[in-house]
C-alpha cells in the first residue's frame, strides 16, 4: 500500500477508535427501570410470620408508584416491613452484574425524624437456593437515607454486601460470602430492622439500574482485539500483495528474458540466413567472407597455403530448358549435398553464384586440390539422377593462394582455370599454373 494512503487509513482508524471509546465512556448506557406501572408481581413481608411479631405491612399500586404502609407494633424485638418485587422467576432471575449503580426515588415517612430504607437484592445461588423457596435466595443488602424531599439517590452497586444474618443462617464458608448478582429474582424495599413503633409509609416512585451496554473493560478488550486483528490482517494481506507483486515482477523478467532469447535467436537466424544460400544452404559470398574473417583471427598460418577450386556445372542452361527450372534447382541441391559429403570439415564449400560453386581447402597445395577436384568430378558425373534421366558433369578450376593478400587474385586464377576447363571440352579439372591452363587463361584475356 502507498505510504500516503496507509497514513490516511491509520489516522481514520485512530479517530474511529477514539470516537468509539468516547461513546462507551459517555453513552452506550443501559437503564433498567422499575415502577408500579409494570406488571411485576409484588407482596409484603412483616415480622408476624417469621418472627411472631404484630407488625402489619400492606402495599398498593398508586399509578406508577408502590405505596407500602407499615404499622410497626411492639411484639418482635426488631419490627420490620418489606415490599417484595419479583423481577424474574427463579432460577434465571436478572443478571445485574453489568450495572454500576442504582438511582432510586423512594420516600420513607414515619414516626422518627430520619427514616432509613433498606434495599435487598435476592439472588438464586444454586449451592443454597431451592426453586420456589424465597427464603433460600442469597440476600444482598444496603441501607441508605432517602431524604425527605423525594429527590433521587444514587447507590453504587458495589455497596451491596451479603447480609450477615443470611451468612450465619446458612453457615456459609468464607469463599461463598462474596456478592453474586447474576440471577436476581427478587428486589425488596424495607424498613430495615428495628423500625420504631408507629405508622410508616414507604413510597417507591422509581428504581433504576444504570450500567453500560458493554462494560468498559469488555469494550476496551474488544477494541484491542479489533486492532490486533486489523494489524494481523493488514500484515498478512500486505505480505500476500508483496508476494503477488514479486511473482508478477519475476514473471515479467522471465518473459523478458524469453523474448530476449527469442530475439537473439532470430537475430542469429537472420544473420545466418543473410550469409547462406537459401536453395542449397551453403555459404554464399557474404557468408564466406564472414567465415574467413572469423578463421583468420586464429592466424593466417592455419589457412594458407589454401587451394581454391571452382566447380561449374556443364551446360546447366540445357537442364533448365529441357527439364524445367525446378529440376535445375534439384540438380543444384543434389550437387551441393554430394560435394558437401566428400570434403573435409575444414574445407569451405560456397555457392558462388548460378551454377558455380567455390571450394576452399585450407592448408592444401594445388596438386592435392587437383586430386580432390578430380575425385569430385567423378562423383558428380556418377550421380544417379533416377527418373530425371540426366547426365550432369562439372568443370573444375584449381588455383593456390599463399596468403590472405593473395586470396582475391587466387580466386581469379581459379576462375581462369575453370574457363580453360570449359574451353577444353568440359567435365575436366584444370590447375592454374599448368601450361594448358595458362595458355587458356591467356586466350581468355585476348
Ligand atoms: N534452376 C536454376 N538455374 C539457375 C540458377 N542460377 C543460375 N541458373 C541458370 O544456370 C544457367 C547458366 O547458364 P550458362 O552461364 O550459360 O552456363 P551453362 O549452361 O552451364 O554452360 P557452361 O557453363 O558453359 O557449361 C542459366 O540459365 C541460369 O539461369 C538457379 O539457382 N537455379
Write the layout of secondary structure elements.
Elements (H helix, E strand, L loop, with lengths): L2 H24 L2 E6 L6 E6 H5 L4 E7 L2 E8 L8 E6 L12 E11 L7 E7 L14 E7 L8 E4 L4 E2 L1 H7 L13 E7 L7 E15 L3 H59 L10 H12 L9 E8 L2 H8 L1 H18 L5 E6 L2 E6 L4 H16 L12 E8 L5 H17 L5 E3 L3 H11 L1
Parallel strand pairs: 16-17
Antiparallel strand pairs: 1-12, 2-5, 3-4, 4-12, 5-11, 6-9, 6-12, 7-8, 7-11, 8-10, 13-15, 13-16, 14-15
The chain binds guanosine-5'-triphosphate (GTP).
Provide structural commentary.
The chain is α+β, with helices and mostly antiparallel strands and 446 residues long. The protein folds into two domains: 29-212, Sandwich (Jelly Rolls), CATH 2.60.120; 285-445, Reverse transcriptase/Diguanylate cyclase domain (Alpha-Beta Plaits). It has helices at 3-26, 47-51, 164-170, 216-274, 285-296, 316-323, 325-342, 366-381, 407-423, 435-445, and strands at residues 29-34, 41-46, 56-62, 65-72, 81-86, 99-109, 117-123, 138-144, 153-156, 161-162, 184-190, 198-212, 306-313, 348-353, 356-361, 394-401, 429-431. The strands form three sheets. Strands 1, 3, 4, 6, 9 and 12 form a six-stranded antiparallel β-sheet that branches. Strands 2-5-11-7-8-10 form a six-stranded antiparallel β-sheet. Helix 1 (3-26) packs antiparallel against helix 4 (216-274) and helix 9 (407-423) crosses helix 10 (435-445). The protein is rod-shaped, with a radius of gyration of 61 Å. The model has no long low-confidence stretch (mean pLDDT 90). Residues 279, 312-317, 320, 325, 328-329, 332, 354-355, 422, 426 line the site of guanosine-5'-triphosphate (GTP).
